Amino acid sequence: MARWTARILGIIVALLAVVGFFVEGEHLAGIANVDLTLDVARVVIAVALLWVGFGRTSASALRAVLAIVGIMYVAMALLAFADSTLFGLLPTGFTGFDIGFHLVTGIISVIAAFVPVRDRAPVAARA
Asked: pLDDT digit string (tens) for 102-111?
């Protein structure tokens, strides 16, 4: 579950980052923030998620990246309740969609980071 979560979120965040670089100064489709600061952060987050999602990394690296991304996303969503521009970092400000997306994505990432990984190798029968 954790590896698939990293892959799917990595692809979504990467797409948002790339598209965001071409739509500066307004909201993407009128609903999603695409400020340069957020786009750069999304590139870093996407690279980390794709690296642990598709690369040969340990389970602990996978869990660490998912936990860090999840905590960051939840923190951004909660801070946006206080100030939608995250205290001036995002000039066009978060929308309700942004807050919901970051909150849900963050929660999913944190859950995926802490769900135990099932070992797929069969247990040898004891004699």
From this structure: 999 999 999 9
